Amino acid sequence: MSVTAVPQRGFSIDPWDPGYASAVSAEALTELDARSSAELDLDREVPASLWKPLSPARGAAAPDVMLIADGVRRVDARVWVHDPGGAMPAPGIAASYAAGVVRCSPTGGETAVLAAIDVRRALFSPSPDTPSVLTPYASYPGHVATGATMEQLSLALQQQLTELEIELARTCRADLDGRSDLLLVDGPLRGRSHLPRTLGYIKTHHAAYLPAPQAAVVTDLRPGERTPVFLMGTSWRRHSWYLRLPGTHTAHWAGIVRCEAAPDLPIDEVTALADASALVLPSLAGVDYKDPRAPQNLVPIGGLEKRLRHRLGDPRLLYRALRNAAT
């Protein structure tokens, strides 16, 4: 007996694999505090009352080269750093992290290639006596964190990863021989807004920033269309816009990503970056039969993440090595 699926009113299926968190958190759709926490200037590109889906402007140009930077991190062991004077030991983490850059040509003529990759490790603790640890398989230079909580230790690790991404991106840009480029960093632009021609790429939405009239424009976007640019932030500020990527699902926020650009750029430069993102990113969208986070997890990002995680090494081997080094 065959069974025919009948579309039902009133609900839709989130396209991401259930093993991952949803692309849009429930809090982002229901928490008023999340929506009101950031100050908004909705009139940056067009007046807020005139918002509508936008296609790239006539004459908008894609860059010659697209650089995509990403990083991964892993805690290999929790540690205690002992005080020589006998005081209470300080908590810490021994961690591995890796960053890489993929280079591709939106205008054709060059397939996506791995342009740079680097793997590093470190031991983070607030103790001034934080040691560097050497094992037969890897070394963990000591770094002093600002605090002892897991959040502060994680922040210290993230800062090192961000610095490594910036270092690799600058190296790759030095080899472009004058070709125009656009750098995309996976995640918020935090710590990287000083880099020229750089976009932050946010594929998971934890807060609903826009009021209802402008949020309705997001759900009306068709693949390759974007919202007008707006300015957001409190202690931090960003230019931002939403963009829909092509995909097979019809849920309201399916395929929606948010891009960020530096807050101090003139609006014409920001709109040029926004148009470039609408020209380039749809062609890089992930496909659902290969990636459970498609289409937001771009094909180059998915491939780079897989390579980086492999390069972190065997966590069990490193954990045993750290335990042996401690004894």
Q: What's the average pLDDT?
A: 87
In percent, how helical is the residue content?
A: 25-40%
What is the number of strand segments?
12
Largest sheet: 10 strands, mixed
| Beta-strand residue fraction | 25-35%
Query: Largest beta sheet: what is the strand line-up?
Result: 1-10-11-12-9-8-2-3-4-7
List the secondary-structure elements in sequence, H or E: HHEEEEEEEHEEHEEEHHH
Give the N-to-C terminal Cα separation: 65 Å
Tally of helical runs: 7
Which parts are unreliable, with pLDDT below 50 for 5 consecutive residues or more?
A: 1-22, 29-34
Structural class: alpha+beta
Radius of gyration: 22 Å
Domain module tally:
1
Shape estimate: globular
InterPro entries: RNaseH-like_sf
Organism: Sinosporangium album
Protein name: NurA domain-containing protein
What does this structure look like?
This protein has one domain. The protein contains seven helices and twelve strands. The chain has helices at 26-30, 32-36, 150-173, 212-220, 267-280, 299-311, 315-326, and strands at residues 39-41, 65-81, 90-104, 113-125, 133-134, 139-140, 142-144, 181-186, 198-202, 230-233, 237-244, 256-261. Strand 3 and strand 4 (113-125) form a beta hairpin. The longest helix is centred in the middle third of the chain and has 24 residues, at 150-173.
